Amino acid sequence: MARLPLEGIRVVDSGHVFAVPYAGGLMADLGAEVIKIEGPGRLDITRYSPFSGVHADNQPGADPWNRTSNFNLINRGKKSLALDLSRAEGREVLKDLIRVSDVFMESFTPRVMRGWGLDYPNMKELKPDIIMVSNTGYGSGPGPYLQYPAQATTQEATHGLAHVTGYRGDLPSKAGQSYVDFLASWACLMGIALALRYRHRSGKGSWIDVGMYQLGCYTISEYILDWLVNRRLGERLGNRHPSYAPQGCYPCAGDDQWCVVSVRDDEEWAALCHLMGNPELTREVRFATNRDRITHHDEIDAIIARWTRSLTKFEVMERLQGVGVPAGAVFDARDVNLDPHFWSRGFLETVRFPAERGMGKRVIIGRPWRLSQTPLAAQGPGPALGQHNREVVQGILGYSDGRYADLEQAGIIDTRPTQPRPLSHMEMDERVRQGRLAYYDPDFKERLGIRDEPAPAPSDSSPALIGSRHT
């Protein structure tokens, strides 16, 4: 069996939410031993907050913090060490773990690691060749925003994306949930790969200091350049394009079904007109050039919408692509989960949970890339809280039974939250009624081919194919 690319690399992941943990999950897919650290009194919020998604089969169970969809997706293949870093004893355990690890990842504001004496200069004293990843909203300095905490949903404002996202004349808008978090995940992966190569060649470690708002600026680079060169500010255009016409998101047959169409030149415009059965449009003066079509965009939109409403979104996409016009159906959660192309590329895969977890087999998102010589797959499900406490503390660090028992007795390590939060349970029909979900599929297990696995106690609300209106 082929050796995985990151086998033999030990990663300590103390990140929270999406950015750092998702990078850690992908590294676990690549063969790294990734140890996720959470405080018993400070769980990763993907275990219990609105970021957590839905519990398996919509059943919180006796340990709801172990059953949330987002946590188990992002943290697949990791080991869990529930360690209280707010106490000196917990930080001593962490220091011992750093001494025998290759990569340390964190997403605290800069003051936290400095306050603990675990910033990069001090960390190098523990392990001279350590690779440290700090993922913060505005970097670790210098600069006036140094101490600002941040999250991806507000970062879209400070890096400028919200200014150019939204409908013409309307409010600035965000692009989606935690968009910049995933840019940060990939940036962390690239930085770690470069640092590992540098360490291999030089024997020296590195500090990767990621400022998330800088990553976001890359997504609007053309607008930044337009301001620098032309002193012209970008504007909100909705689904339109500053240079192409027509471009838009058009209604298709069915409820809330859509397809995006983008016409870049006269040749594509002619192909669209002929496909719609309106070749005469190519001879109309008001649509003769791209500039004319931009001017008369509203009229064109009405013509295209009349045609698209008679077809499914996939028919629109396939017919347009067949004549060389860029088009893409708007996928929702059901489309993504059942898409044969995603499955054939391994972008969707299944993981099996241990029988004692009562979660059976589940579908997760894989990786956005493949390797030609090395098959990749998730190395296991997300861990239960503190599942690997003993394996890490005694197996890796070599602590004695007595010392381990002392840590457990003092609450430095644990397998249950010390401050459990109340969780409100909502039936799936009510989620749909409130608009939190667009729909749910009660038969999702049959549709995904995972019905053969044992499920928790039966419930009237046991769906997991859920989603926002558009993905």
Features:
471 residues, alpha/beta, 6-stranded parallel beta sheet, 3-stranded antiparallel beta sheet, single chain, globular, 19 helices
Instruction: Name the overall outline.
Output: globular
Mean pLDDT score: 90
Strand order of the largest sheet: 3-2-1-4-5-6
Distance between the termini: 36 Å
Instruction: Determine Rg (CA atoms, Å).
Output: 25 Å
Sheet/helix structural class: alpha/beta
What can you tell me about this protein's structure?
The chain has 471 residues and is an alpha/beta fold. It has 19 helices and 13 strands. It has helices at 19-29, 69-74, 88-99, 110-115, 120-126, 152-158, 179-202, 212-218, 221-230, 266-276, 290-295, 297-308, 313-322, 333-338, 340-344, 389-396, 401-409, 428-433, 444-448; strands at residues 10-13, 33-38, 79-82, 103-106, 131-136, 206-211, 247-251, 258-262, 327-329, 348-352, 361-365, 440-441, 465-466. The protein has a six-stranded parallel β-sheet with strand order 3-2-1-4-5-6, with helices on both faces. Strands 7-8-9 form a three-stranded antiparallel β-sheet, with helices on one face. The chain has a two-stranded antiparallel sheet with strand order 10-11. The longest helix has 24 residues, at 179-202.
Task: List strands and helices in order, with pairings.
Elements: E1 10-13, H1 19-29, E2 33-38, H2 69-74, E3 79-82, H3 88-99, E4 103-106, H4 110-115, H5 120-126, E5 131-136, H6 152-158, H7 179-202, E6 206-211, H8 212-218, H9 221-230, E7 247-251, E8 258-262, H10 266-276, H11 290-295, H12 297-308, H13 313-322, E9 327-329, H14 333-338, H15 340-344, E10 348-352, E11 361-365, H16 389-396, H17 401-409, H18 428-433, E12 440-441, H19 444-448, E13 465-466
Parallel strand pairs: 1-2, 1-4, 2-3, 4-5, 5-6
Antiparallel strand pairs: 7-8, 8-9, 10-11, 12-13
Helix pairs in contact: 1-7, 7-8
